[in-house]
Amino acid sequence: MKPRADGSPDVSPKSGTLQEDCVGTESHTVLQESVYVILGHGRLQQLALLSTILSLILLLMHAFAYRLIGRPVDHWCQPPPDFRDLPVLQWKNVAIPVLADGSFSRCTVYDPPVPDDSQEERRVVPCDRWDYDTTDIGNSVVSMWNLVCEHSWLYYISSSVYMLGSLCLVPVAGIMADRVGRRPVILASAATMLLATMAAGSTQAFGVFLMARFLVSATASATNVLNFIVLYELTGNEHRALYILLANSVGTTVTPALYAVLFLLHPSWRLSHALFVAASVIVLAWCYSLEESPVWQLATWRVRQAESTMLQAARTHGVDMAKARATIRALKRQLEKRETASGTGTGGSGRMSLAATFRRRAMSIFLSWFAVIFAYYGSRTGRMSLESYWEVSAHGFKILILIAVYYSMKNRGQRVTLSAVLALLFVCSAFQTVSYEMKWGIAMPMSTLMVLCTTSAALCVNYGYTAEVFPTPIRSIGFCVSYAIGRAGVLLVTLIEAFAGDKRIFAFNAVMTVLSLVSGVAVQWLPEVFSHRKKDTDPGTSDVQQRKEAL
Questions:
Q1: Which of 238, 269, 389, 414 gives 139 a disulfide partner, CB atoms 3.0 to 4.6 angstroms apart?
Q2: pTM of the model
């Protein structure tokens, strides 16, 4: 088993996939960069970038959908038929117990509801039906299925079921994408997401709603992850760092602003789902415009299909077709040499050592995803609301962090960048833990702002580095398993929200601090990867540069 150029081992199967072994100076890196020379850069990568951005926006819209369709609704015990004509305030004054804080009970009612002539004290009994105040905010999942009082646990179940969709089914999408191709699985996921979104908005059955949301979670996540993999495999090293950051930072910036506006407009249940359906249609249309990854086609010995894809892209980007075909012929000869040499690998002990190294690196990536996704979603769930000037400051701070991340990825490498971002997240989360416990006034919104911006940057770097760690034949399954483990972190957020009570903010901050520290240490097992490769005296690299200049 030969290591890749970036130091990670090849665990691709021996038959049916392109081996990662080297033939002289004709390394895997040279072959891959030869593909980028033929592809050129332009419309193909821009379509993939826009499709990835839109799919992430839609994924975040579904992930935070309960801000629109799961809002809390004021409720009280429903009067019996004989008292239905009684005004609400009069009904509450007569039949609803008053709590110690002076508010009306939401879960109990007097029995009988109206005092009779007897002198017996009325009993306080639990409600069996409720009325809701939907005048201003309309229906939500709470009022649609009575997820209140003794049924309130179903609200947290519905959130957990959504997260389980990604945890259970995204790895399946990854397996299929490595076997049949990225594009077919993306289209199937996007189409299923559209149908499931329509079902969630139109059903009257809570069980059907849960199943639809389960599928929406899985398909929205798979669509985004596989879109990103296609973008990564279509984009050469020269533009990759910029595209990685744009693919993730635009969505994480636009979606919160979009939800802030929608929350003020109080869209109805049907209008909210109509918005989700419209966004799903747009994403499906953009996914249809994607091309299959020629890097994956070459890695799985679909050479003719890869040649067709590369020539079509070269034609679109204005590359000289005669020279592109000549480069493809040279690329085929390199592939034949690699196939001939694929049987001369390392010995058994070497393979075992490389496999152990790969497992350690995979575990580091899994832990990083768990920590980053836990921090990203948890910091946006039930957090303190920031004043408008803090929100504006957050956007400015986020831009500064992303600029620093971009230059670090280009010049210092992705592992160093990820380590630095996780270290910053550790400092920010520790600061937030202390400031919230000590009630340090201005330090509380400041620490919240820093955590929000740092988690967005960590998410961007995590996406890019994960695609580098896993070789092409198993990139989708490796990435999808990593993402699914990250979604398990969101389940932990839900459990903290449900069971930590008044200590939930402290519990979340403390767990985030520990996870960011542990994942930052674990990342040190990973190899360094530069998004923009520096000039090198390697003959193979020189050949690639010469072919690029010729084309």
A1: 269
A2: 0.86
